[in-house]
Predict the structure of Trimeric intracellular cation channel type B.
Amino acid sequence: MDPQTFLDVATVVTKLKMYPYFDVAHYVLCCLAVRDDIVSQAQTAAGQALTFQRKHPLSSWLSSMLVCFAGSIVANFLLGEPILTPFKDQRDLATASIIWWVYMINYCPFDLVYKLAKLLPFKLLICMLKEVQRAHKVYHGVVHTAKLYPSAYVVIVVIGIVKGNGSGLIKNFERLVRGIWIPGSNELLQPTFVTKECLVASIIFLLERLGYIAVPHPLIYFGVVIFFVYFKISSLLLGIVDPFVPLENLFCAIFMGGMWDAMRRAVKTEPVKEEDKDGLLRNDVIKSKEEKKKE
């Protein structure tokens, strides 16, 4: 592709408006995640999928809204801003609620919306739109935080991560709204690939803002979008869960003591226990007796 044409395409992607298509894809995936989590937890607890969303519609709606607006809620909490600000936009709240009503509560006849969204072609399309929106959120989270705290680089990167994967970070609280508490499963203990890629994107946008990357902004933004979309498609089609794992293992082996632990285990000789010594002595005595008999 001609460089100028590529730059023009990147500029168009940079200026895309998130509403309605990209936001709708985000809300659909959020409601899908909540519904699937309800089903999985119900199967674990009772051996069958309970109709939680029909028995507890308020809890179901609130948990879905928390996931839909998780990035803004968590980011506002960390930055000392009102956490209810995301709910001020009546258009977004109404759109998310309509998707929850049709999609989450199964009021759609024959559950058609849920079944369509589960089909691979539709899921690919929805996920691609979602990844474009994720890049948009990470970038604007970095820009907004850089204006508030220009020299707080860690804070800037953290808010970029939160904006990009707030649903993963708020999962414990969202489950608590539904009466489930699983403290051993959270994004800090077991970070997913989404959190890691948001970390990489936040650092890239920060370096661009600091002037360390001398590339036009549309190209950087478009590169992040391609990075997000490519690995999401790879996870759906090829089953690639976390391509960062080999790098993490290598880093831990070199800098986190893994190599030294392996060397210590290799050269360490375990002392022979007393009962093992007695066993060895008995075996020697038995062997010596057998040899005498043969003679």
Confidence is low (pLDDT under 50) at residues 45-49.
